[in-house]
Amino acid sequence: MSNRISNKDAVANITRDSSSRRELESLPYVHKVGTAPKQKLLTEITNSLKETFLADDPLKPFKDQTRKRKLVLGLQALFPILQWGQDYNFSKFKGDLIAGLTIASLCIPQDIGYAKLANLDPQFGLYSSFVPPLIYAFMGSSRDIAIGPVAVVSLLLGTLLQDELDPIKQKAEYQRLAFTATFFAGITQAALGFFRLGFLIDFLSHAAIVGFMAGAAITIALQQLKGLLGIKKFTKKTDIISVMHSVWGSVEHGWNWQTIVIGVSFLAFLLLAKYIGKRNKKLFWVSAISPLISVIIATFFVYITHAEKDGVAIVRKIKKGINPSSVDKIFFTGDYLVKGFRIGVVAGMIALTEAVAIGRTFASMKDYQLDGNKEMVALGTMNVVGSFTSCYVATGSFSRSAVNYMAGCNTAVSNIVMSCVVLLTLFVITPLFYYTPNAILASIIISAVVGLIDIDAVVLIWKIDKFDFIACMGAFFGVVFASVEIGLLIAVSISFAKILFQVTRPRTAILGKIPRTTVYRNTQQYPDATKVPGLLIVRVDSAIYFSNSNYIRERILRWLTEEEEQLKEKNQPQIKYLIVEMSPVTDIDTSGIHALEELYRSLQKRDIQLIIANPGQAVIDKLHAAEFMQLIGEDNIFLTVADAVLTCAPKMEDP
Asked: What's the CA gap between 245 and 240, in Å, rounded?
């Protein structure tokens, strides 16, 4: 009898075991969160530094190479012309020759005008389109960028320099300070590239740059009213109120009608040529050659009429000959050393931002890679050498680069061709600019800076991001109504403010289940996503650091409180599990972990279990190290939100 009973029990146990096994097998498999093998501290630090400063692995080509090959590769890395020059041929040279001659016709009149913006003699603008482009052609990696003085940097440099020295009364010292600033601009640029700190220029947002450039364009155009209207006494300030007061204050006796006729007539011609070139890309050469044609016609007109005797201001003598050495003119000691360093750093950063942006634009259009750090070293070297040869800060010019691109340039040889034409100009043609009216230079500059005002970009910024629009307008109004340096300061400040705001106030979202899927998404983005009864799923869209950890903890608790209040009003089951989706959380620090511990304790008091879903490797490693995993339990960490819901939802049904 007892044997029959024991046999029945055994059969029942076997039946129950097999039934339980079938139930377990029918449940979906829940994968545990993996942890990577622990790295040594030195290895971890090395990998982190490598990813920060050597993300592109610049030393990879040198691996497993002979010493001779490494030397060749090193020289090619420093001088890219040694690499692409091997495949250079006559067909490419024809394109570069045409492009070089075209941008030379554009740069010569522009350089004379831009030198005046910097309060320097005209020849310094030409000097800066001779030596720097030659250096860049050997060291630069962009095929399309055209090097030389640009309007914004010229204005910025001139404004900062004249705050320290009078360009007329202290002319020699002013020029020395300009060379000193150029030297330190080059050192700054080269240092950023050498130490691979190019990411620093990205702190000036695109929106801030658009606003700054537009404001600078307005300011430059207003400054040209002196030459365009023939005004002799003009304010040294750059804000729109001071300039307009100076313009209208001299309307009765200060304006010269002959100058106005010359300036306005050729400005209309230049803008028309620019419009034609923009409408028909094949006629780009019309806008490219129009400045030189304007100079030739206007100079000839003034020469035969002697309009200078009627008050038309002219360029007069431009010093003839090649760049003289200026090594002995740079301030390496004294008070002006610090001033030159400060001005050089600011001018160098702006010049670098403009050049890299232009280089990347054309590189993407031609589908080739641009090494930002190499560009910085090349730009810095050319400005250091330029400061030794009577040049002021040179960089990539967007208008000239666009013409260079459309003219069919193939390599940086177009810069060499341009330099040769400028050299010829310095030796032979400079005396012919004696009768060139200042009004025509003002017209050329105004027509050139019009392209810096990008209305379409401003409208797009407004549509996409209102905070970016504030940064854009802040930079614009700062430049127009205060000064270039104030506008720059506002641009940088708002860019940093945006970063701080986004870091300290990251986005969080409540997630719901998309119907007929196991996908959980933001309920605001997907209104048909349904919440799981008894569960609150919150996603944190940022790394958790000391700067935002308390905000994230408080925001999650506010989400929880609001949700509980809504459930109480509807007489629905209260929250039993809080699932934090951490896939967007790229990193966490000790303050972040401390905030999670406080969140866990707060939830425990409410009888709510904290669940972590999909933490990344960096996060899970730190949670393990802080023993946070043991605090909440290994079983409360899941690979996906779906796994967490699958495990927690059945528990809600248990009595």
From this structure: 8
Query: Measured between alpha carbons, how far is 588 from 594 in angstroms, rounded to an integer?
Result: 10
Compute the distance between CA of residue 587 and CA of residue 251 in angstroms, rounded to an integer.
Answer: 63
Looking at the DSSP bridge assignments, the partners of residue 637 are: 612
Cα–Cα nearest to 183, from 492, 389, 43, 417? 389
Q: Is 460 exposed, middle or buried (0-12, 13-18, 19+ CB in 10 A)?
A: middle
Share of the chain above pLDDT 70, in %: 92
- Report strand pairing: 146-148 vs 508-513: unpaired
Report the distance separating Cα 293 and Cα 436, nearest Å: 12
Q: Reduced to 3 states, what is the DSSP secondary structure of residue 314?
A: strand
pLDDT above 70 (res 305):
yes
Residue with tokens 């750090």: 373
Please write the tens of the pLDDT for every residue from 275-304. Answer: 999 888 888 889 999 999 999 999 999 999
Q: Cα dist. 636→46, 511, 598, 609 in Å?
A: 33, 18, 17, 8
Q: Quick one: how far is CA 569 from the chain centroid? A: 50
CA distance 439 to 228: 5
Confidence of residue 495 (pLDDT cuts 50, 70, 90): confident
To the nearest whole percent, how much of the chain has pLDDT over 90? 68
What's the pLDDT score for residue 15?
47
Are 414 and 277 contacting, i.e. CB atoms less than 8 angstroms apart? no
The distance of Cα 486 from the centroid of its chain, to the nearest Å, equals 19
* Better-scored residue on pLDDT, 158 or 32: 158
3-state SS class at 544: strand
DSSP secondary structure letter of residue 430: G
Give backbone dihedrals phi and psi of 332, rounded to 5 degrees, phi first. -105, -5
CA neighbours closer than 13 Å in the CB half-sphere of residue 259:
25
CA–CA separation, 399 vs 409, rounded Å?
A: 14
> What is the rounded distance in angstroms from the CA atom of residue 216 to the CA atom of residue 452?
8
Query: Which tens digits make up the pLDDT trace of 57-114?
Result: 777 787 878 888 889 989 998 999 999 999 999 999 999 999 999 999 999 999 999 9
Q: Kindly give, in sequence order, each residue whose CB lies less than 8 Å from that of residue 477, ignoring residues fewer than 6 positions away.
A: 215, 487
Cβ atoms of 412 and 81 within 8 Å: the answer is yes
Tokens of 481: 């109504």
3-state secondary structure 378-402: HHHHHHHHHHHCCCCCCEEEHHHHH
Q: Residue 130 corresponds to which tokens in the numbers above?
A: 């001779």
Residues in contact with 308: Cβ distance below 8 Å, sequence separation at least 6, in sequence order: 302, 314, 435
Among residues 545, 465, 559, the alpha carbon closest in space to that of 508 is found at: 559
Q: Which residues contact 149 (CB under 8 A, 6 or more apart)?
A: 110, 111, 114, 115, 118, 125, 128, 129, 392, 393, 394, 397
Residues contacting residue 455 through CB under 8 Å, at least 6 positions apart: none
